[in-house]
Amino acid sequence: MTSRDAILAAVRANQPAPAPSLAAVPLFDRPSPSLLKDFQETLVSMGGKFVADVDGKALDALVKSLFPDAAVVCSATPEARGTRVLDGNSDPAALADVDVGIVRAAFGVAETGSVWLSEQELRVNALAYLAQHLIVLLDPKHIVGNLHQAYRDPRFKAARYAVLVTGPSATADIEGVLVHGAQGVRSLTVVMVPIEVSL
Amino acid sequence: MRPVDHAEASSHFIEAKAHLEFHDRRLWDLRLKRDRQAHGIPEWEELRNLASAIKEHTLSHLADYLERFEAQAKSNGAQVHWARDAGEHNEIVHDILSAHGAKTLVKSKSMLTEECDMRPYLETRGIKVIETDLGERIQQLDDEPPSHIVVPAVHKLRDDVSQVFARTIGAEPGNNDPHYLAEAMRRNTRPYFLGAEAGMTGANFAIAETGSFVVCTNEGNADLSANVPKLHIASIGIEKIIPKLEHLAVFIRMLSRSALGSPITQYTSHFRAPRPGTELHIVLVDNGRSQRLGMKEFWQSLKCIRCGACMNTCPVYRRSGGLSYGATYSGPIGIIIDPAFDIRKYSNLPYASTLNGSCTNVCPVKINIHDQIYKWRQVMVERNQLPLVKKEMIRIIGKVMSEPQLYRAAISATGLAIERLPRFAIYNWLNPWGKQREVPEPPKQSFRSWYIENRTSR
Q: Where are the alpha helices (DSSP H) in B85-235?
């Protein structure tokens, strides 16, 4: 008998009496005067930075003002130019010297201050982790209330890799002292930029 | 094998005053943060009920859901392996690594690989294993197991970490600034992320519907381990399965709130399929779980999502430290899991509790933890696993309690004894309750004699 069959047989033999089948999980929808404000508050509480309403054309100037010393700026979205073109086929380790990564999120979650990214948005997943700093563009119209709504998004089922990013890499493993930039990005800046409708 | 002596190990922990005070305060602070988050969500109790129901449903149909998960994961392009026990798990992982010629493995924190004692197995076979969670790495470099399932090095102070890093990764001796120490580790680990041939993660949840699994970290170290090397191995305990994505929402809303008092971990990462040109291997591990599923009183412990809330709230855990349990899992959840692995070795653990029930009250999946602790005590008696002193005490107490006259005589004698006896006669090794605490002042009168004096009618 293979291990697979042995395990499944043991599980079948030992399973407790069937518990009731499950009803759909409620959405726990709560009306909020401003999802954007909720999103901003939670994001900031998680150590993220929030930049309101930026004109898409002013993006490169914004990046320059936020990170004046950045030598390598690598953008996964055509909306920002950066200094290095991101090749979707490139070796992830080649991103080791990136100072600032830029990516557009598919949507945000107000409850947790999270942004949703997948390989579609990131092109190279490691960009969100090997870069020293990460800038995420988010259309303020694309914010859902809570995680119940977020997990109804069909893109979860299509993405090979999907991540809810909430603030920068953080640790409090030494005496509970909060340190940003544990292993991943040292800072996360979420910039509200509406998606431009092409004519 | 001698049973782990939790009380004896705790006494060493308690001797280090500064450590004890910090440990107690830090974990209680996590509990308070957890409360603030829980109270901020009106549907919190409903979420706990849902989480419990989802886990009970899944565990009672586990074989079907495992098959569904496997089929879905395979159709996503992942390779699925099954391991009956720790030994088979370690062999499978080693075989995969060998087949790829991998010499270095970067990994994120996984209690399962601790349970399997995987690191020494791989290291003796020439594979360098690098833990990439800061707390776990501190413990690896200090050659100690994690003392807490969420914050592995919580029993250490900054000076301890400073000494470990100075000794092992060339950090500046005497520099105990946590920012400096975390940065030193970042710089030390980065080359491993870039050069390792393989990465490994555990999983917090595995979703049958999608064949995907979820890893929650604050450091992003799981994402680096999985997204830089060309090979990703994920070790997953078979109890981690949940049916659908909509169920995942319930657990993600509660996991970090219960664990650390934050609304979510910085990174909640969903792995469904390998990146093009890379391989994803999933190892589904039983290691005693299927057997525990058949234990009528104890299968509910398989609902655990490893948040650690029961540890943070436990007065015994906070004042004895995780290492004193001498097991992979410590604190209240450890007490109810460990004896299922080795009843003799962990026969004393069910007594490392005051049965106050706080663990049960904070558990996000509503495991009846303190009931199970009590039931394990009964099992220990039935299986004759009680130490002689405890057995004799229980025999005497049982006799005294069952005979009213004897009981009354004992009560008044105890009162007199505490009032009249010199300190050394009360605070000595025969009375463990007199350690680190004062025996309460005896009441002037027993209830029974008060009642006889004061009753007005028969």
A: 86-99, 111-115, 118-123, 134-141, 158-168, 178-195, 221-227
